[in-house]
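User: Please fill in residues for this 341-position structure.
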């Protein structure tokens, strides 16, 4: 859909002419910022907020499924550009195996914090964004989608920040909010009641992190490093809760499932989404997460798990597919992947 407004070039950014109302000003602004950034990883917003260039490019792409997919996708092959066929095929295969799919696309930070872009933009209503339209399309086809955009916006407005300022991932609070919503869905399932549960503790800690967006800035342009409060989950032995391959729930996707969980460049252990979900449910989930794309590689790893253990899929009740929403356009491709032979 074309914007109706004319544009002026101001400070290298394409901005709407006063008096003309574009249908999605955030799309126009994001696309302009991404184009200006070029190959740079980080775009600086206001008040110390940093944004990922690829995320801005995704928000500027508009419709990314159907005939438009190949025009805006970064997929290596045009036939793998459209995420819709791959998602529907995956859901169909899981349903045939008696497994429910829950999609958890992590909302772009720039969507929730449009007011931290330069110049500021207002958060558009979900129905007006391509992401919102795509998620409604998935729901119309029977796919369960947990969209946390509104919840994250409300949390941020109340001073509870679901995103890192200097990193491309959600914050520890973002993990907690997602875990609470997922746990509510899972506790309503008939198979949950019969599962044995354990008590897990939470202890607050503070970490000073070298965020990926911060690290990508020139040394001379880096602000003071960000510090975050985290809720670290532990079992009765005081140790972190490891993933459970026998769990009925698989948490699958990209590094949003590893941040604050895997340590090292993921900043901490015991405080990520798998940990918060274990604390909410009373048992650990299975984990299939990659540091790269959560689109195709994660599904390939799920296939490999099933191949190495014939009983593996028979133990599963739900797959939570959690990945950054920018993957819809920025992934290397959305191939069809078999669940099993």
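Assistant: Residues filled in for all 341 positions:
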């Amino acid at each position: 859909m074309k914007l109706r407004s004319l544009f002026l070039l101001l400070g290298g950014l394409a901005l709407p002419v006063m008096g003309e109302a574009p249908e999605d000003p955030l799309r126009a602004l994001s696309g302009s910022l991404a184009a200006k950034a070029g190959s740079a990883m980080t775009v600086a917003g206001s008040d110390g907020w940093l944004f990922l260039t690829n995320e801005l490019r995704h928000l500027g792409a508009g419709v990314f499924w159907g005939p438009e997919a190949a025009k805006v996708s970064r997929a290596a092959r045009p036939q793998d550009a459209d995420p819709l066929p791959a998602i529907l095929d995956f859901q169909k295969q899981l349903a045939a195996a008696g497994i429910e799919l829950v999609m958890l696309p992590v909302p772009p930070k720039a969507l929730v914090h449009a007011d931290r872009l330069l110049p500021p933009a207002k958060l558009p209503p979900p129905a007006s964004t391509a992401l919102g339209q795509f998620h409604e399309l998935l729901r119309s086809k029977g796919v369960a989608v947990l969209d946390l955009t509104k919840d994250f916006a409300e949390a941020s407005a109340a001073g509870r920040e679901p995103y890192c300022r200097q990193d491309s991932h959600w914050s520890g609070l973002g993990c907690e909010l997602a875990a609470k919503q997922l746990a509510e869905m899972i506790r309503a399932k008939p198979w949950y009641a019969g599962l044995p549960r354990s008590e897990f503790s939470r202890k607050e800690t503070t970490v000073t992190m070298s965020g990926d967006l911060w690290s990508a800035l020139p040394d001379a342009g880096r602000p003071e490093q960000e510090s975050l409060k985290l809720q670290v989950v532990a079992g009765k032995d005081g140790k972190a809760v490891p993933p459970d391959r026998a769990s009925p729930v698989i948490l699958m996707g990209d590094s949003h499932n590893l941040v604050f969980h895997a340590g090292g460049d993921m900043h901490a252990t015991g405080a990520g989404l798998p940990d918060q979900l274990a604390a909410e449910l009373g048992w650990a989930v299975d984990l299939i997460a990659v540091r790269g794309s959560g689109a195709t590689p994660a599904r390939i790893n799920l296939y490999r798990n099933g191949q190495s253990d014939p009983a593996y899929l028979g133990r599963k009740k739900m797959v939570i597919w959690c990945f950054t929403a920018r993957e819809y356009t920025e992934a290397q491709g959305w191939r069809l992947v078999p669940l099993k032979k």
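For context: Confidence is low (pLDDT under 50) at residues 1-22.
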